[in-house]
Design brief:
Number of helices: 6
Strand content: 5-15%
Number of domains: 2
Mean pLDDT: 75
GO molecular function: glycosyltransferase activity
Distance between the termini: 56 Å
Pfam families: Glycos_transf_1
CATH architecture of the largest domain: 3-Layer(aba) Sandwich
Low-confidence stretches: 47-53, 167-172
CATH topology of the largest domain: Rossmann fold
CATH class of the largest domain: Alpha Beta
Organism: Gemmatimonas phototrophica
Radius of gyration: 18 Å
Order of helices and strands: EHEHEHEEHHH
Protein name: Glycosyl transferase family 1 domain-containing protein
Amino acid sequence: MRSRHGALRISLLGEASALQATRLHAAALDLSGCVQVVPLDTLLHHAFRGPHPQASVAWIAAGGDAGALGTLAAMQQGMPVVVPQEAAYAELVTPGVTGFRVPADSSVTVVAEVARVLSDASAQRAMGEAAAVRAARDYAWDRFVDTAATLLAQAGGVAGTRVTRRPSLTPA
């Protein structure tokens, strides 16, 4: 595998102890030099590039909030994303545009979709760019703050209110 995909870099997000079996499989495939295990929060803090160049594709297997946050963080960094179709956050990914949705229990399908992304550099770039655009347009922090402020105002009885605020770390 390494001889066919010399530039392959695999970054596994999660706890090192939970991913030990994956490391053993990587060693058996002579991929140890390509695999790194990194905590999810490094992706969330934009330090994911780490010792390797940016990943070519993000395969998100985590569930719940961790999976959703990991998906959005990868998209913001311009990575095509492969997610389990059963996950609540799968709707973040537009199949064939920003990444792929795959059955969680089908490793063959996951590998096929990751291989498809890796086999076409221009399609990979286009998907990564589309992912970054979608994350910035639909899931940016300021949009979240605006929506939350509007919903809170409406819940407080101010019907038809649209609140627009810029996030700030300093008191008003």
